[in-house]
Every structure is written in structure tokens, then in C-alpha cells.
Write a structure and sequence with these properties.
By secondary structure, this protein is mostly helical. It contains 14 helices and no strands. Helix 1 packs across helix 14. The radius of gyration is 20 Å and the shape is globular. About 15% of the residues have low confidence. Keywords: cAMP, cGMP, Hydrolase, Metal-binding.
Length: about 290
């Protein structure tokens, strides 16, 4: 099916550091690759039995979720007011070629805020989980401030908006959306939005080697990824930014568990193991 084919295309790329010929790659580059993409410096490898798997029964998200709401949203009475240029850019939000830079310019450098509001609305998450619109807007704007904290040229609010839109694209074009609960969809979009919050622009290994405060705090394990989740959740301790205030206790705990798992999985030192796990899963499906 499309999902399996999509995964195979992702896995066709080389994924083993051992495949890199020593005579073709400078020593400094190989050292950087090893420190970034493998679990060194005492970081424990994920146990073999800890494999990602679909956790829910089929939950088909109805096509009505995607009913056009653009022009109604231009009224501030129903939520976030959309400038005309933003409405134009969102016509391509379901496409791989979506121009996040155009959105950022059209929105006055608030691409993450508008992307979060757009997708929370499209998937009916505001209504389903009773998320207060003022809280979402305040939370998103504060995220944008944090993404700009270190003037990071890559891990910034544009990158966060880009990744969030990419998650949306993958969900609707692979069909995986129909295998996820509404809570899991919320977790995916939320995790994408916060996944690099307050990124310093340096690697985990840099933090470990320099014995930075965050490395000491998180014991050298997925240092930045732990910070992204923790700092984002700390924002929601403030009432005006608590977008999860109306979740049930069980939903809150499950969402938090999912978000932590997703964001920590963006630690590049675990990506090769993830690729191996996906390959193994695909081979089992074919067998």
C-alpha cells in the first residue's frame, strides 16, 4: 500500500555509518557523524523490545474535518483573524510543496502560530478537546518567542511550522490518519510544533562535552530533546497558556506520554535503530 511504499522510499537511503569509506570522508566529519548519530557518551540504547507500534484501533477521521473554513476565519469573532495573504498560502497546505517561507512573510513572521491554529481547526481539535482559542494563541506566540531565543538560523519558528505541516501531509497522504485516534492526532501536531523549542543551535554532544547546565540536568541523555518537551510543558503551567486544561486526566496522561516519546525520538542518535526497526516491521508484513 501507499504507506509501505512511502516507508520503503525513506529506508532506501544508506543508514549505516560503517558504510562510509574512511578514505573518502575526513576524520573530523566521521567523528561528528559518530557523536551525533550514534548513542555514545554513556547514552543507553533503546531495548530491542521497545519498538514503535500502532497503539489504537481504526478511527476514521471524517472528510468533514477538511470543510473549507477560510473565509469565516477572517472574523476575529470566531478565532484568529487571517490576513488575505495567509488564506492564499493555506490553499496549498495539503501539498508537499507548501511554501512555509511565504506563510511566514504573509503572517508577519508568525508562521508557527497560524500553522498551529490552522491544523487544530482542520482536525476539529479545538472543539473535540475544548481548547480555549485565547490559550492556544498565547501559547503559540510564546512558543515563537522561545524559538527565536537563540537566533537559531535553522531550528527556529519557521522550521517548527514546516515540520508541523509535514506531519499533516504525511498523515493525510499515507492514510495513517485513519489508524490514529483524535488524541494521537493531537499529540502528533503538538509534538511537531514544540519539538525544537528553545533549541540552542548546538548538538547534544556539544552540551555533553561542555558540561552545560542542560546536560547536567538531563544526565547527558537526549539533552536538547528533553529540554524541548520540558520547557514547552512548563509554559502550560501558566493558566493563560494551558491549552490542555479541559482534557480528562486519562487523556492528559496519554497525550503527555505520546508527546514525550515522539520528541525524544527526534534525537538523531537513535535514528539508525528506528530505521532498522521499520525495516524489520516491513519485512514481517511481507512475510
Amino acid at each position: 500500500n501507499f504507506y509501505s511504499s512511502f516507508c520503503r522510499r525513506l529506508l532506501d537511503t544508506e543508514d549505516e555509518l560503517s558504510d562510509i569509506q574512511s578514505d573518502s570522508v575526513p576524520l573530523e566529519v566521521r567523528d561528528w557523524l559518530a557523536s551525533t548519530f550514534t548513542r555514545e557518551m554513556g547514552i543507553v540504547k533503546r531495548r530491542p523490545e521497545e519498538k514503535p507500534k500502532f497503539r489504537s484501533i481504526v478511527h476514521a477521521v471524517q472528510a468533514g474535518i477538511f470543510v473549507e473554513r477560510m473565509y469565516r476565519r477572517t472574523s476575529s469573532m470566531v478565532g484568529l483573524a487571517y490576513p488575505a495573504e495567509v488564506i492564499v498560502t493555506f490553499k496549498d497546505v495539503d501539498k508537499w510543496s507548501f511554501d512555509v517561507f511565504a506563510l511566514n512573510e504573509a503572517s508577519g513572521e508568525h508562521s508557527l502560530k497560524f500553522m498551529m491554529y490552522e491544523l487544530f481547526t482542520r482536525y476539529d481539535l479545538l472543539n473535540r478537546f475544548k481548547i480555549p482559542v485565547p490559550n492556544l494563541i498565547t501559547f503559540a506566540e510564546t512558543l515563537e518567542v522561545g524559538y527565536s531565543k537563540y537566533k537559531n538560523p535553522y531550528h527556529n519558528l519557521i522550521h517548527a511550522a514546516d515540520v508541523t505541516q509535514t506531519v499533516h501531509y504525511i498523515m493525510i497522504h499515507t492514510g495513517i490518519m485513519h489508524w490514529l485516534t483524535e488524541l494521537e492526532i493531537l499529540a502528533m501536531i503538538f509534538a511537531a510544533a514544540i519539538h525544537d523549542y528553545e533549541h540552542t543551535g548546538t548538538t547534544n554532544n556539544f552540551h555533553i562535552q561542555t558540561r552545560s547546565d542542560v546536560a547536567i540536568l538531563y544526565n547527558d541523555r537526549s539533552v536538547l530533546e528533553n529540554h524541548h518537551v520540558s520547557a514547552a510543558y512548563r509554559l502550560m503551567q501558566e493558566e493563560e497558556m494551558n491549552i490542555l486544561a479541559n482534557l480528562t486526566k486519562d487523556d492528559w496522561r496519554e497525550l503527555r506520554s505520546l508527546v514525550i516519546e515522539m520528541v525524544l525520538s527526534t534525537d538523531m542518535s537513535g535514528h539508525f535503530q528506528q530505521i532498522k526497526t521499520m525495516r524489520h516491521t516491513l519485512q514481517q508484513a511481507e512475510g
